[in-house]
Amino acid sequence: MLIDPHTHSNEISLCSRISLNDIVDVKKQAGYGGIVITNHCQPWYYVQNEHAEFMKKFVNVYKDGKKYADTVGFKVMLGIEVSINEPLYTDWLIYGLSEKDLLSSPCLYMLNQKELFEFCESCGAILVQAHPFRGEMRPLDPEYMRGVEVNCQPNDLKRKDDVIAFAKQNGLLLTSGVDYHGREMTMFCGMEVPDDTETSADFAKCLKEGKAKLFIDGKVLEI
Ligand SMILES: [Zn+2]
Ligand SMILES: [Zn+2]
User: What's the pTM value of the predicted model, to 2 decimals?
Assistant: First the structure.
């Protein structure tokens, strides 16, 4: 089964131009079996003391999307993309947090890399640095992450070999995803996972066990 583990829907992500139900329809049509919905958690979305309220909405959007996806035989899994400022501005994908973990989480964008990593580890979740060579971003301390992402946006994909080299040097996992924000993003990329992958915790387990393969431009990338 092919999944796109990096997608944004416009009920939460202000930069997205497509609803979660429409992502389900478009991705199913394109040949995917599922997605991880990784909506943004960013400092400019809400103030710190509104985190719990924001997370309620965040989880409800996922639940509504999953309910629809279940009726059409498509998998929607719960992820998140958190932007932090310490030690540098960077974006982080998290796989394997439950609804409960998110609803009881501290304000995630306030954490630094090490704190975010420790929170993820305490929940059995995997912290992955998203598009680590985008713009001014660079891969941060490999000690406090589980993986790095080969992002399939054109400029990020040019740095594929650098991302893979960084992962190899540091014993990190690799993911790949589209960073889907709208219908024009037709690149056929993601991860090939076992058919029984149902939740983002299952996906995290596949990653740890080496059962998820990078899928870039229509084929599995053997590494
Ligand atoms: Zn975005
Ligand atoms: Zn993203």
Answer: 0.98
